[in-house]
Amino acid sequence: MTEPRTEPHAGLRVHFMGIGGVSMQGLARWYRAEGFDVSGCDAADGPALAALRADGIPVAVGHDPRHLEAGVDVLVTTMAVPRDHPEVRRAHELGLAVRPRIELLADLFDRRRAIGITGTHGKSTTTGMAASLLLAAEVDPSIQLGASLPGLVGNMRHGAGPHLVAEVDESDPGFAALRADVAVVTNLEDDHVAGEYDERRNYHASLADLQAAARCFALHAPRVLYCADWPGLDALLGDHPAASRYGFAPDADYRIEALALLAAGASFTLTLPGGRRADVRLRVPGRHNVLNAAAALAAVDLAGLDAVALAPALADFTGVGRRWQVWGHVGGAEVVDDYAHHPTEVRATLTAARAGGRRVRAVLQPHRWVRTARLWRELADAAALADEVLVLDVYAAGEAAIPGVDVDRIVARLRAAGREAGRHTLASAVDHLRASLRPDDLVLTLGAGDVWRVARALVTGAPPEDGHGAD
Questions:
Q1: Does the pLDDT at position 468 exceed 80?
Q2: In the beta sheet, which residues pair with residue 163?
Q3: 328-342 pLDDT per residue, tens
Q4: Separation of first and last alpha carbons in the chain
Q5: All domains in the chain, ordered by first residue
Q6: Higher per-residue pLDDT: 8 or 53
Q7: Contact between residue 114 and residue 281 where contact means Cβ atoms under 8 Å apart
């Protein structure tokens, strides 16, 4: 049963179930800054919960219906929480409002002039770049980001100005109802699609359902921006009455020209409507990040800011957390962690890595059982861009294992493609790399789970399986 949409107001006690999730952290901090009495709980302790406690937000470890019996007015849940969860059932028994996370984000959109950025790939980096531009404009913006950004408290900023930039997670079908002032769609392909599998938490039933949700999100906005180079977006979004396009296409409204890709960045010129031109320099590598930068500049331009004057601020952008995050060097070898987990993302990241001319050694952690079952061939083929691939077990993210699906098939496909490949644990990957590192190596940890622990262990010497570090 769907809860009626009611606007929360300051003074209410709001309890976030799963508060350690990156989007829930940002929303909890936002509502606390708005004057709400905020609390939360999560299944396991860790750095995120410690940081929330340090900010004055009481957080319990574990889920318990008794959390709701201390004056809670609203329970906030995520897609990952089953509707019959004991804590949710108790909330209904007590007559509390039970609201999905996406509705709270919708409230934020209603209060600000929102730039909402969604897509299968690049939305965190694009949002981080747009946030950096708004901060450079000194308009006191609000920010909701699905990753950390230097200068923010965690992944959010509560500003008094009219502008909000927010990452919009397309895995939640509820994003279709968000009403942005500028809706940005970076790309769209087969991800968070369940297909023949029954899992529906963080999944659409079909690619057509995902496309329909993205179209609905775009049509709600007075202005929409999308990538001119991405197949299918013209057909999906091109009939919007105020659609703008960015990319390399000659007819793009925001056109990338004079591109120079470097081992540790890029430079290009962005031609804007009316013949305006912005010279852009980046410190993050890869053609995909050039597209992300073009999208960010175009979005702030459509929001009414001077993108040409703000473009130099991107030269100081060093990335958001877990996106080409350089952990350091070991004996001359560089160690980098990246969130790439979809085959397209893995291919883009490894393509950027190969531009440096070093031996590329990837530690790959497949993410979620349904995604692995549906895309393991494509994942192996993308990972084959590396010289060597160490494949970890699937990071389940709460999903039940699927019989017959395992990483051995990924290893076998990589070996058939002529690549060095093997199955590893976190610990054995660290041991193998430590014993064989060369000064010309670039080690990349790839995945949305805890594969970053390998990068940290190589650089710091910390045990790879402890519970402290990046979140």
A1: no
A2: 113
A3: 999 999 999 999 999
A4: 33
A5: 13-101 (3.40.50.720), 112-316 (3.40.1190.10), 325-460 (3.90.190.20)
A6: 53
A7: no
